[in-house]
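Let us practice reading a record.
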Amino acid sequence: MSATKKRRLRAHDLRMLRDCHGLVGVDEAGRGALAGPVVAGAVLVNRAFLDSDWCRRYAPLINDSKQLTAEQREHIYERMDWLRSEHRIIFAAGTASVAEIEQENILGATRLAMRRAIETALASGRVNLHPPDPLFTYENPPALAAGEVLDDWKVLVDGKPIKNFGFAHKAIVEGDAKSLAIAMASIVAKVTRDRLMDALDVEAQGYGFARHKGYATPQHRAALLTLGPGVHHRKLFVSTFLKTTASEAERAQTQFAFEDEQDAAVAEEPSEAAPRPTEAAIRTVDSTTP
């Protein structure tokens, strides 16, 4: 993605601000993996941030998390954490466990993770979900500043509209490549999930979670056929993977006993990254910006 196109992410969000105080970008990571939780990120940005010198300089380096290296994601996440400590942005992550994925299905679990991310971010920013109830009489009605109620914010979600979400929202297909707030949320989700998978790699050795993060890479497929699924694997996903990918001989060798044969989506391998900002470009920004 060219620097000009990346600058459009910020321009897109500035246009979105015309009828609201700020934006809540939301995205997920790990929906197509065979193992581990699904994680969502929520990032709150306002005009002051989008107009800041930091954003003007740094926005061109921010992109859909899948188009960045792990080092670049961590680097940007650290810069975002600094912004959060300076109260210039608000962000949080939400997760849904493997058990919740099995119970709610992956779409329901993703919705749950997104709601948790939004609610945590709003709480940390002291943004009220609802304005004061008009049915109650106040001797001194609270004076709410702009941004103190969720109605002042516009929720932008990557992908298609989400049913029964609980939040009014605007869905943007490929939003992580169009909206800066969503792209930042994708980095929060991806970095948070990668760190969780690194921890699971220590707990459940042999699967290589730290390397493939639970996706259906050749290494992960080979480990599954050798070791069988562990407690961190998604039962329905792995069952479908075996039925559609493994040979009859391989399935016989594993001797897996799955009681639930419902259909589930086969996990997709991470896509190859598109051209990325250079490490030199990041260092150039860091020479003038915390």
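A brief commentary: The two ends are 25 Å apart (CA to CA).
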